[in-house]
Design brief:
By secondary structure, the chain is of the alpha+beta class. It has one domain. It is built from one helix and three strands, in the order E-E-E-H. Strand 2 and strand 3 form a beta hairpin. The longest helix has 32 residues. It is elongated. The C terminus is likely disordered.
Length: 86
């Protein structure tokens, strides 16, 4: 599976000096940003990376559920050992 095209941007907080906030973008579109600010760029980036990991896991889970539902709608069970006549 290809890695989603997420981009993390950590920027200085506009209202608080010496604090940082993150934004996560998907192909240039803002998905979410941090509600809190962080003391360092490293802390902000680590929090953003955790957010992206959770997002990727959620999307994978949704995809697996979708795949399972599609398999359940097939008129036969591919894993049941059926052999197709040639």
């Amino acid at each position: 599976m290809d890695q989603p095209p997420f981009t993390i941007k950590v920027e200085p907080h506009t209202d608080r000096n010496r604090r940082f906030r993150w934004g996560v973008y998907d192909t240039g579109r803002l998905l979410d940003n941090s509600l809190q600010s962080f003391a360092t760029v490293r802390e902000a980036r680590a929090d953003a990376e955790n957010f992206v990991r959770a997002l990727v896991n959620k999307r994978r889970t949704i995809q697996l559920q979708t795949d399972s539902e599609a398999m359940a709608r097939l008129p036969f069970a591919p894993s049941a050992g059926y052999v197709l006549d040639e």
